[in-house]
Design brief:
The protein is built from 18 helices and 19 strands. It is of the alpha+beta class. It starts with a strand and ends with a helix. The structure holds flavin-adenine dinucleotide.
């Protein structure tokens, strides 16, 4: 029988905005259904740099964006202290830069005004010698350098934490479930949706008083299901991920066209980016081109001359749901956001859309959206998302105690504590009944423990092996899944009741996904090495056909 759900608000899109809105509403006691057609955070959110900062470059044109982002960065640090990390930046100034150190410093002095909001330290000016001592990777052609203090977050885990909290407060969260039709009553009001489960293939209906379209760059497509037009200026952005860290601290770089870019340490890797190009293509197949890669490497090379000696592991790409503007370069477009009440504009009542914005200000944006939805529903409960910790953010985990009690390495315990915060202990407990295999390191690159896989399957609603890439960073290290996919699939098969054929399909899917991420960045002898590696590991499972591009 077709499943039927009834709720007050249907939130569509499990990126940072959808999960943030669902959490906010659930905390106000509003019944919510949240649907995501793939894995939580797998759209633009996963592709972001994960910076929760004000964005120095928005200061001139969009100071309110800088202020909101810094303000919300402070809140995110409070509610999810386990998921954030400090990113000290160096901004080198070269002799041939159009702006000399004095002008750069004026900009930084202005940015310093926002620093207390995000718990940062004001900038300092370093001599050439000081900068090179601090960061030997830096070019010796610099005149001087400035320090800046920023924060990063695991954006995918932030989505999961918001969704988990929403679910803990009564929301229904459905992943790998796509809205394929918006339903309308005889008056034309949007009052629900038809959903398709993309794994099982079955359908369900959800009735809702209000529908929130939080589908990021897909928002125009979703709005069209109700006959509505939304305009965005979608901007493609890519990052290159290097094996291991290429520098001690984050370093600013300039693109050949003068764009600000940077490389920054991220987990045990470094990330470099990003690009921003108008995008008109398929949102489900965003290609990374040779030009993208060459542009990023060229920019990085000026600040870090030996960058090309480092191995690029893979690329990450996504599309920004930037607000529409005509006649401006991509970089000059506003990073502000809008909440559209389609009914108020003479369109489809009952449907709202959120467009634009930044990860860094997601909580404030979600608050604004929830205020609007609650106003329409007659709910007066206030927003509580800035005070109540996200799951895991309640208290710091005691790393040495965890490592000793469960006999796992400190590095593995630290990774768990980063992703799960105070819940790290229950993660390890989940592995205790698995014949002591919970302590086993499944992915040595990260390291990911067997227990963590069991936990995300049992307690976080994980449905696919490929979801592990975002949830626990399985397969994004040096092995790119070749060394861990089969073992991980075995663990998930036990937990989720997969048969052998399903487990093999899941491995093939992960292998194909990782190859799509790797293929644009490998060249020369590395291609042969990667091919050999993949075929030795996956070929043993009889997957050679499936993984060939
Ligand atoms: C390269 C790059 C770097 C960035 N760096 C930063 C940064 O450092 N700091 C910062 O603050 N911001 C950054 N941003 C911006 C930030 O990532 C975005 O503003 C934010 O992630 C948008 O989140 P979202 O939830 O709106 O969209 P998404 O994360 O794309 O979520 C939308 C979700 O909707 C789902 N969906 C679509 N259609 C349907 C459907 N029919 N049914 C169900 N689900 C559906 C999609 O699968 C997707 O998961 C960056 C963006 C890019 C591209």
């Amino acid at each position: 029988m077709t499943r039927r759900l009834a709720t007050r608000v249907l939130v569509i899109g499990g990126g940072i905005n959808g999960t943030g809105i669902a959490r906010d509403l659930a905390l106000r006691g509003v019944p919510v259904v949240l649907v995501e057609r793939r894995e939580l955070g797998s759209g633009t959110t996963w592709a972001s740099s994960g910076m929760i900062h004000g964005g120095l470059r928005y200061l001139q044109k969009d100071p309110q964006v800088t202020e909101h982002s810094c303000l919300d960065s402070g809140a995110i640090q409070r509610i999810a202290p386990h998921l954030v990390f400090r990113i000290p930046f160096l901004m080198p100034v070269f002799r041939d830069d159009p702006l000399g150190p004095e002008l750069v410093e004026i900009g930084l002095e202005m940015y310093d005004r926002y620093v207390p909001l995000k718990n940062g330290r004001p900038h300092t000016r370093l001599t050439r010698a000081q900068a090179l001592t601090l960061e030997p990777a830096l070019s010796d052609r610099i005149e001087c350098a400035f320090t800046l203090d920023e924060w990063g977050v695991d954006a995918a885990r932030l989505c999961v934490a918001n969704a988990l909290d929403a679910a803990d407060r009564g929301a229904t969260v459905l992943t790998h479930t796509e809205v394929v039709e918006l339903l309308r009553d005889p008056s034309g009001r949007v009052n629900g949706a038809r959903l398709r489960d993309r794994i099982r293939g079955d359908e369900a209906f959800v009735e809702a008083e209000l529908v929130m379209n939080a589908t990021g760059p897909w928002a125009p497509k979703l709005a069209r299901l109700a006959g509505e037009t939304l305009r965005l200026r979608p901007g493609k952005g890519i990052h290159l991920v290097f094996e291991r860290r290429v520098s001690n601290v984050a370093i600013y770089a300039k693109g050949v066209d003068g764009r600000d870019m940077f490389t920054f340490p991220h987990e045990q890797n470094s990330m470099a980016g990003t690009t921003d190009d108008d995008y008109y293509g398929d949102l489900d197949r965003i290609d990374v081109t040779e030009d993208d890669v060459a542009y990023v490497l060229q920019a990085m090379e000026r600040s870090i001359p030996r960058i090309r000696e480092h191995r690029v592991l893979h690329a990450i790409q996504g599309v920004r749901p930037t607000l529409f503007g005509f006649g401006a370069y991509e970089d000059e477009l506003s990073r502000d956001y809008e909440i559209v009440d389609h009914g108020a504009g003479g369109g489809a009542p009952g449907l709202y859309s959120m467009t634009g914005g930044k990860l860094a200000s997601y909580r404030l944006m979600a608050q604004d959206a929830a205020d609007r939805l609650c106003g329409a529903l007659g709910v007066s409960a206030p927003c509580r998302t800035a005070e109540l910790p996200l799951p895991g953010g309640e208290a710091p985990a005691d790393l040495p105690a965890l490592a000793a009690r469960f006999r796992v390495g400190l590095a593995a315990a630290a990774r768990l504590a980063f992703r799960h915060g105070a819940r790290a202990r229950s993660v390890l407990e989940a592995g205790e009944d698995a014949h002591a295999r919970g302590r086993r390191v499944v992915c040595a690159c990260e390291p990911v423990l067997d227990a963590e896989l069991r936990h995300v399957a049992r307690s976080e609603g994980l449905r696919r092996l490929t979801d592990c890439t975002l949830r626990v960073r399985l397969g994004v290290g040096a092995c790119q899944g070749a060394g861990c996919a089969a073992t991980a699939a075995g663990v998930l098969a036990e937990e989720l009741g997969w048969d052998a054929a399903r487990a093999v399909r899941e491995v093939a899917e992960l292998a194909a996904a990782r190859w799509r991420a790797v293929a644009p960045v490998v060249a020369g002898a590395q291609v042969a090495a990667m091919e050999l590696h993949r075929h030795v590991n996956f070929g043993m499972l009889g997957l050679a056909e499936e993984i060939l591009p």
